[in-house]
Design goal:
The protein is an alpha+beta fold. It has three domains: 65 residues, Arc Repressor Mutant, subunit A (Orthogonal Bundle); 53 residues; 166 residues, no CATH class. 30% of the residues lie in helices and 27% in strands. Strands 7, 9, 13, 14, 16 and 17 form a six-stranded antiparallel β-sheet that branches. Strands 1-2 form a two-stranded antiparallel sheet. Strands 3-4 form a two-stranded antiparallel sheet. Strand 1 and strand 2 form a beta hairpin. The radius of gyration is 25 Å and the shape is elongated.
Amino acid sequence: MMVRLQPADVVARVEQALMLMEKMGWGVDKAAKFVKTDRRSVYRYLALRGIKWKKKGNLNQVVILKPPTAKKIPFLHEMSKGVSATRAAKNLNTTVRSMRKVTHDGKPIISKVGRKWVADFIPVYRHRLVVYGTMSGFTGKTLGRNKTAPHEVDSVQDEKLDKDYADIWWQVDFDNFRSTLDTLQVGECHAQQIFDLLKEKLETPKLNNQVLVTSFQTDPRINLDLVATGRGSIAADVEISELENLFGRYDLTFDDDYQWGVDDSMGLEPISLMPTSKANPKKYFQPKGKFQVIVLKKGRVDYYPQTPLPIYYRFTVADEDECRNLSDYRPL
């Protein structure tokens, strides 16, 4: 009899549920519900792969049984949050004595400094992180009807759109965001800093575009505002922001209520283990984001600019060390 495999989308949700169970200490029901699957799918996944498990405690928490070598990643993940080796081992139902024998690239994953066990490696994850939001113009009103979210652009039904009144939003998409934080923490840590970077880079007047400024000046209100705000009256000398230049609207600013999202099919497992000797506080990552303003109407979607504007965001391991204080963060 042929075994019926689970669909790929079900597998992805179950694997995220298992991650939550392992890293957050959640029960199978809570984790399954959070990722929109069910306990039956979780148990079927484990059975199909011959993964052993047991129930623990009064709440019958499901614990995956793994040999010490299979606990290398979650053990190092626990320690990267500031948890002691003893507590990390206990959380994973093993011992420091067992974990000190586990190696990576031929080197022990922990070593003793004085009387304390320290991690010799830190996990590095790869994420797809997107930060997005709306904009306001000269009148202070948010542009567009603001009814369709960016992640719905490929799935929204055309009849729900308006041919004259567009949905307008900006977004910056990092397809290869490397970080020492996992899926549950990376957005919480970096979204605000990315938003601040965008405001500084794209809202600050520093470009000249005489043709565009001349078109702005045809509106008497804008002409007066240019003078009142000290930008000037001579079109060739007036400086405009990158945001004004790429979208052709005067006095564009980002609304403060930005949002962010992380692709939950990525970042579940690290892509590498970085030796802690290289992960000093000055070690930095510099992911490249792609920025665009998106205008969605019935039967049409336009991007400004057509080729995304590159946004380079730089941060250090020390910056992420501060975010590790969010280790008690619970998304529910």
